[in-house]
């Protein structure tokens, strides 16, 4: 039987600290890669701008993490009006040394279309760490100027924007120990009711622009990162690290915290927003040429199959009479003549 970690002189904290160092290396790789590949992406943008429907064709070959959220109505709009997609590590553009490479901005450019007035939709995702232990991407709802009766999200995006603005107007309350149940506001109730009526399976891809995630401010994230860094320094130096108060919460309270997290998720109109963002930034965007070539090869295969079907039909026609019916098999006499 394998020994448990408690039976060794290795602590969970040591493993977590080592894992964090691996994360730091990966983050630094992203920083360097972004700087080195920037001129290449600029060249690619110039080339693909000369190829009609480049990005719609790329999106047709999108990986499952993206494709599964595109409804038929979304697909029709994207294929007819999408002009380009671009991804930037905007914090690095602002400060190459101090910016976090994990923060991304995803920009969609559209031609004039029947659904909305915008020609550019850009959504930013900030990598943040919360004092409650959360670490990941957070965002803000992006408003879309829908034309009358053409809202593909059926009002969801407008509702989540209203709820977000309402929450942002209130200061975030820090919770110590047990988290109290918070009553939903009227706007939150309206949003939850709309989500329940819609069902996650029928939500438009454009609800992606309404993803929020955890609400963690830049200041809270900065403080949480500094505290974590100091704790790791102390552990490395062999100094005592005091337990945080929320680490002493009983299991029953943890269950209640999980319930509260589920309540927050109930107000998320596109729960997989961070997953889709990473799929675009780390897969679709860098692999666009690969996906375009796949689309071309798929079209070529379809053409070959179509031509093959035509040839088969021609052969069948040759075997049929002028009236379109198969020839009736005739009997021959003993001498080989036909009557």
UniProtKB/TrEMBL annotation:
GO cellular component, one term: nucleus
Compositional bias annotation for Acidic residues: 247-267, 300-321
Biological process annotations from GO: nucleosome assembly
Pfam families, alphabetized: NAP
Gene3D superfamilies: Nucleosome assembly protein (3.30.1120.90)
Database matches in InterPro entries: NAP-like_sf, NAP_family
Residue ranges crossing the lipid bilayer per the database entry: none
Family label: Belongs to the nucleosome assembly protein (NAP) family.
PANTHER family tied to this protein: TESTIS-SPECIFIC Y-ENCODED PROTEIN
Protein name in the entry: Nucleosome assembly protein
Native source organism of the sequence: Chaetomium strumarium
Organism phylogeny: Eukaryota, Fungi, Dikarya, Ascomycota, Pezizomycotina
């Amino acid at each position: 039987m394998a020994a448990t970690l408690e039976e060794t002189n290795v602590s969970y904290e040591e493993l977590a600290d080592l894992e964090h160092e691996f994360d730091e290396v990966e983050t630094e790789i992203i920083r360097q890669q972004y700087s080195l590949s920037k001129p290449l992406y600029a060249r690619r943008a110039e080339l693909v701008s000369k190829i009609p429907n480049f990005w719609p064709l790329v999106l047709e070959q999108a990986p499952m993490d993206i494709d599964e959220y595109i409804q038929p109505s979304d697909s029709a709009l994207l294929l007819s009006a999408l002009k380009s997609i671009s991804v930037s590590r905007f914090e690095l553009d602002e400060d190459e040394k101090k910016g976090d490479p994990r923060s991304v901005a995803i920009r969609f450019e559209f031609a004039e279309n029947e659904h909305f007035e915008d020609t550019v939709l850009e959504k930013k995702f900030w990598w943040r760490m919360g004092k409650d232990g959360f670490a990941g991407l957070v965002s803000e709802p992006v408003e879309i100027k829908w034309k009358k009766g053409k809202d593909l999200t059926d009002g969801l995006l407008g509702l989540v924007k209203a709820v977000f603005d309402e929450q942002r107007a209130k200061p975030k309350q820090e919770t110590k120990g047990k988290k109290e149940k918070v009553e939903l506001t009227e706007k939150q109730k309206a949003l939850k009711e709309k989500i329940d009526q819609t069902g996650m399976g029928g939500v438009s891809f454009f609800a992606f622009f309404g993803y929020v995630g955890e609400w963690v401010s830049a200041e809270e994230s900065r403080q949480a990162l500094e505290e974590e860094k100091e704790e790791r320094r102390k552990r490395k130096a062999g100094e005592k690290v005091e337990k945080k108060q929320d680490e002493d919460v009983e299991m029953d309270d943890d269950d209640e915290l999980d319930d509260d997290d589920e309540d927050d998720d109930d107000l998320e109109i596109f729960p997989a927003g961070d997953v889709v963002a990473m799929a675009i930034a780390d897969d679709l965007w860098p692999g666009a040429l690969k996906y375009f070539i796949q689309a071309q090869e798929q079209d070529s295969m379809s053409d070959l199959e179509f031509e093959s079907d035509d040839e088969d039909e021609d052969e069948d026609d040759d075997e049929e009479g002028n009236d379109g019916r198969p020839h009736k098999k005739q009997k021959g006499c003993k001498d080989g003549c036909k009557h």
